[in-house]
Each structure stands twice: as structure tokens, then as C-alpha cells.
Design brief:
The complex is a heterodimer. Chain A is mainly alpha-helical. Chain A is 74% helix and 0% strand. Chain A is elongated and about 65 Å long. The radius of gyration of chain B is 20 Å and the shape is flat. Classes of the chains: A mainly alpha, B mainly alpha. At the A-B interface, α1, α2, α3 and α4 of A face α1 and α2 of B.
């Protein structure tokens, strides 16, 4: 009996984690190079998590299980992370523009822009994704702790 | 491993799994909203803009909450 319960627990855990960490559901331009697709997928995922966190935070506040000061602090954090994501998106868009519209060599009116290898947008997106995931977990966990 | 420890481990695993699933539900809700927005053959740029717009709507709803000043 204990073995069956253990198996059920493990499968529920794996199913839960699978739902939580599933990526790539939002389509990304397949003509982009692989690093750019990865960054765009990361930005989409973080945007979805911020939106989900906002919904849970609002429910927590309306349900009286988050203090006003925590609500204000976490609302501010979500907004700040959203702004960071927008910066990562701008960097990515700039890189893609450079990639798709290379300047004509030798044309002085159109100097060649510096090459872009997606490192900076990737770094920005990864840092923000880590912060967003941690905050999302904190917001969701509070509901369970206070039950 | 004692019976007590085994039961504790089972309960912890169940709780963690259900908790992760609960967090996933909210995420899935948002994804459904995102997916609905690009059902009509939009460009990838528009999809990106739509995802951002949905995020902004949720954040705007938070911004509209008036928090009473602390006593």
C-alpha cells in the first residue's frame, strides 16, 4: 500500500513540475537563429509568469492573505521585472534587425553596425527569468502557508 | 527508513506536486488567453506584442488597487 502511495506521490510531483516548467507553447519565429529563438521563448515564458503572478497576487490581496505592504512591494517587483523584460526584448529586436538588414559594405552613409551575437539579450532574459520564477513561487507559496 | 519517515516523505511529495500543479493552473490560464489572441494567423511580432499586452493588462489591474494607508 505504501509503495502505491509513493508511486502516486511521485507521479503527482512530476506532473505538477511538468505543468509548471513547460516551455515553448507560444510560437516563435522559426526563421530566427537558435539563440534568438531561445531568448524569445524565455521572454514569452517570463511574461506569462508575470501575468500569472499578478493574478495570484491580486487574489491573495482580495482574499486578505497578503498584507498591504507585501502587496505593494511585490506589485513593484513585478513591474520592475516587466520593465527588465522589455529591455531584453528591445535588445533582442535590435539584434534581429542587424541580422536581417546588414549594411551595404563600403557605403559610407550606412556604416556597418556592430555585430550582435544575442549574448546580452540572453543574459538579461535569463537574469529576469530567475527573478520572476522566484517571485512567482513566493507569491503562490504564501497562499498555501496561510491556509 | 522508518514507517513514519516514509509517510512524511509521501506527504511532502504529494504536497509539492499539488502545489506545483496549482501554480501551473494559473500559468495555463494565461497561456490559454495568449493562445486565443493569436488564433487568427497573426505575425510573430504581433504575437510578441499580444503576450506583452496581456501581461500589461494584468499589471494594470494590480495598479488600480487602492491600498489604504497603514494605521
Amino acid at each position: 500500500m505504501r509503495k502505491i502511495l509513493f508511486a502516486i506521490a511521485v507521479s503527482v510531483l512530476l506532473a505538477g513540475c511538468g505543468t509548471f516548467t513547460k516551455v515553448g507553447t507560444i510560437p516563435v519565429d522559426p526563421t530566427l537563429p537558435a539563440p534568438a529563438r531561445a531568448v524569445q521563448t524565455g521572454i514569452h515564458e517570463s511574461n506569462v509568469l508575470i501575468a500569472a503572478s499578478a493574478v495570484v497576487l491580486l487574489e491573495n490581496y482580495n482574499g486578505g492573505i497578503v498584507t498591504a505592504s507585501d502587496f505593494i512591494a511585490e506589485r513593484g517587483q513585478l513591474r520592475s521585472y516587466a520593465n527588465q523584460l522589455d529591455r531584453a526584448q528591445t535588445l533582442l529586436d535590435d539584434c534581429v534587425k542587424v541580422l536581417r538588414n546588414p549594411a551595404t559594405p563600403g557605403d559610407p552613409r550606412s556604416p556597418r553596425p556592430p555585430p550582435c551575437d544575442f549574448t546580452e539579450p540572453q543574459r538579461q532574459a535569463e537574469i529576469t527569468a530567475g527573478l520572476v520564477t522566484a517571485l512567482h513561487k513566493k507569491i503562490a507559496d504564501r497562499r498555501r502557508e496561510l491556509k | 527508513m522508518t514507517t513514519e519517515l516514509t509517510e512524511k516523505l509521501i506527504l511532502t511529495l504529494l504536497e509539492a506536486g499539488l502545489d506545483a500543479a496549482a501554480r501551473g493552473v494559473k500559468r495555463e490560464d494565461i497561456l490559454a488567453e495568449v493562445n486565443a489572441s493569436f488564433a487568427a494567423g497573426k505575425s510573430y511580432e504581433q504575437i510578441t506584442a499580444d503576450v506583452r499586452a496581456i501581461r500589461e493588462r494584468k499589471l494594470d489591474a494590480l495598479d488600480k488597487v487602492e491600498v489604504p494607508p497603514a494605521p
